[in-house]
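ENTRY TYPE: paired fold submission
RECORD: A
CONTENT: sequence, then structure tokens
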Amino acid sequence: MTSMLRDVAESGSTMINVDALKSEIRSVLINQKTNACPMAVRVAWHSSGTYDNKDHTGGSNGATIRYAPESTDPDNAGLSIICDLLLPVKKAHPEVTFADLHTIAGCMAIEFMGGPKIPFNFGRTDEPDGKKCPANGRLPDATKGADHLRKVFGERMGFSDREIVALSGGHTLGRCHKVRSGFDGPWTSHPLRFDNEYYTNLLHKTWVPRKWDGPLQYEDKETGKLMMLPTDLAIIQDEKFRPFVEEYAKDEALFFKDFAHAFGKLISLGCSPHCQPEFTPHAPSEKDKLSAEFRELAMHGSVHPAKELASRCDVHQVEITSGRSALHKAAFWGHDHMVEYLVKDLKLNVNLQDHYGDTPLHDAAKFGHAKIAKILLDAGANASLKNKEGHDAMALAKEHHKTTVEEVLKAHHKA
């Protein structure tokens, strides 16, 4: 099972909350201002499509697309927008490299638009500068034909004819912009929907050269609203490519399956073995599983089952993705009996700060759990500790209008 399908994924010696990452990526790609999913797919593809299997240069590892000369390659015009959009996500997840972020954002964007889940494993590294940038000009030239596609995808990157045609299906998304690529227009009628329309359009529409002031491209004779590039028409003109186009036009599920495989392979070219789609990370130990189960019970306030489990796990262990303990989870959700058990019987650290700097008292204050706040304070909780936003428990209680917690904190301060 790939990490895309797990709640928590490994990345070297750290762990990543994939659900949280996915939510945050979605919020920056799809919002009131924009739907930037097609360009996110393009960043993942352009970051990876420079790989050369002869000298093992290029590819997504290193995230060199951030640096010149790769960033200034004309084929990458405009892609810095996605890199900038993803910066808040990187800030929230310092454990995720830019190389992993740029590629998984593309994978998730495909899924957001109705496409298949792409197999993905973390572990790419970031280069500190542009010294390992591949030379410009490695990405496919859209003005060329089938031989060029086989040279770039087949000889240089190691893809079969079927994989080349499947990857071409990525053109079902987005559109070309004259100010960036020189070409103009969408391939399909729904450029924000991942489906097999690209193939049906290739086969069932009549494509004629567009009469305009740009490079050679084709438009559909029927409406003149859609376009194809010379490399697109190449896969129906070539006798070995065309059968795969016909298969995908008839069977969208087959296209999804083959595209997921080919795209997963593309974004992993040149990466370490544990980044490859087929890699299976080590399973957590039995004690780690039980410790996670204990935190889950604490989150739900299930005191009796927690007591039965306590002797077989590490009750003090924190969630590696957030730094939160069982006490954080119980305080967050307002389970006073569980908090009392964790503090008095198990002696959990009442001043432990999670990755955001929050203590259990911060959580109790924010959500108005006055009884829990008193239990924590009586057990030695330090009300003056501040989280990463500079807030102590009183500041949070005031911000969220939790007057009963304010009273508890004031009484404790006077005492």
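RECORD: B
CONTENT: sequence, then structure tokens
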Amino acid sequence: MIALVAIGGLPLAARAQQAGKVYKIGLLSAGRPPFNAEERARLPGELRKLGWIEGKNYVLERRYAEDRNERLPALAAELAGLRVDVIWTVGTPASLAAKRATGTIPIVMFAVGDPVENGLVTSLARPGGNVTGNTMMSPEIAGKRLQLLKEMLPGITRVAIFWNAGNPYSANVHRESEGAARRLGLQLLPFELRTPEDFDRASEKALRERAAALIVVEDTLTADLRKRFADFAARNRLPAIYGFKLYVEAGGLMSYGASVEDLLRRGVAYVDRILKGEAKPGDLPVEQPTKFQMVVNLKAARQIGLTLPGALLVRADEVIE
């Protein structure tokens, strides 16, 4: 590897960082800016572990579409115009916008759907072009979430699923959930969201259609709405399962999905290798999730009067009191 070739006692990568160049990393997301310091520090924190210090050897150009996908092309073009050294994209819509904006700047996708189906890469093993990163897709996720709901409520028959119709990843999860629901003898009630303004209409309709539980498909839009989902579920005493831990931290009952922390760490390792000149994005395989996480919120369970089975609790990776 290039990083192991030393001149003057230092690896080439280390010498490059000492040379004084300040790299530009673009961040492109369809969602809103993180609302707390912990979330804002996640990407810079992982970069710091690999020797990248914001303001010293790199600057982070942040661009957020604020849940308006139509803003993504202009934001992606803006980052391309700044000639950033790499673009970190959050989710499928942002990744598609970045790919359309540039065919030369390296793009590292974080937590996308099926990148081959969506035309982001030619294959997972050999992406080709200027795009690589990781995907959240895993065939068993949709069925596992429905099975967990049945374990909590054995007599359940009607389950609402909220998903962002503007995100191809969410559409894939919705499609897989429909198949899993048929196998489990459940009726799945789909409720599409495209903007935050759709929340009230969709949630009110779910109540009218007598949904007994909720699935909220993870993406930037529903993550921005996570507190509203948690409050809605608690107010109407509805068990709900989400994709990521951050939904549970906002008051949600349970989450099951790929480990965001693991995907972040692995994605940042790609950014590091690309900036150091150790690899080109087209040669780095798109990584699939290998770690999954189930988190349970006992306070949320008490709020809706639900006693969770002991067998379920012992399988949880984390229990929030």
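NOTES ON RECORD B: Residues 86 and 105 are 6 Å apart (CA to CA). The first strand starts at residue 6 and ends at 7.
STATUS: closed
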